[in-house]
Amino acid sequence: MSPSRIENLSDLLSSDSLKLLSSSGNALVQQIGIDVVRGVVLEVLCGKNLRDATEVLTRRRIAALNLAMMNFFLRGIAVSEDFVQQLPFLAADSLARNRLSRSERWLSYWVLGLTHKAFQNVLRDDPNRIAEYRDQYIETCREVIEGYTQEYGELTGHIELSSGLKAELNWLLMTYLLNTVGSETLTIRGSEKSAYGKLFEKLILGALLHVLGFRHILEGEPGAYKRVFWLSSRGTKRESDATLLYEPGRAVRFDIGFIGRGNTEISLDKVSRFERHLELNDEHWYVSTIIIVDTIGPGSTIVALAESIDGCIVQMSGAYWPQQIARELSRSLGFRHPLLDMKHSEIRGFLAERMRDAPLEDFIGLQAADTGNDDMPEEEL
Q: Are both 192 and 271 inside the same structural domain?
């Protein structure tokens, strides 16, 4: 058979591998399981870094895709003996097409040693430069292989699966495979940073307000607007991540971001993001602001700036930071809650108990529906 029989490179991946490659945040939660997600949210509420909590999920996805890439090569070789030699040409031809699925585009990048960012920066998003890059890639790999062959000798052996897929090992196969795995790893790490960030911002805010005793509603849902909240509201200026209606005329906007001390300018932008007033059903509401970030650097003036607009900034790096949120609501609204004066030794158990019935599925359901490949964010690396 000829490689020309392969219409799409993604045809060489199993359906499970394609799901891992192109899943949106919602689909990733379904694969991971809501109980695992509930545990991650609890850890963040107790002060753990989200990146630490989701690292095991990222490593699991990367490991599965690494093995899928091996299977991808074996399946291609089963179609054609010269699949490996033709692979750069297949990928370049794929990228020259006008419309590609996310899976097909990413896979074509990877087998050419590229990521989306590399395609933007190296080829300047110009499809007319793909053939030139392909030839340079092939020649670079050939030169490296030639040098290694002279120094270490030929690479021999074979790989065989119990399913019958097999391939003879050589330097070219290993070079293309490892380059593909390297580009895949960069892409997945970057895309998951964005996907998990957006996903868990909503989950953590929703869980926080649920733990504090507020009821989750949809924005615009009719009924009494007292001690309720909705997620991802858009005002006249910019988007807030959650809006809490405490009692008639008094509301709080929340903004959350996994911003570290190295991103001071982003935190400063958050301070001046929102208006102090809200019009809802022809009623006027006074609105305060609570901004939640991962860490504030030493000597930062952000806290004072937030106070100047009747707001505050809370760090998630602090142990049991939800207690600080409760105390801020108490200060600004007269809010009463068991968490206010609770001993630190009791807080984790309290949060865990309240988290058991947190409607995380509802918070996720408010996101845009999963539309497949084009919903996943591009990698940031």
A: no
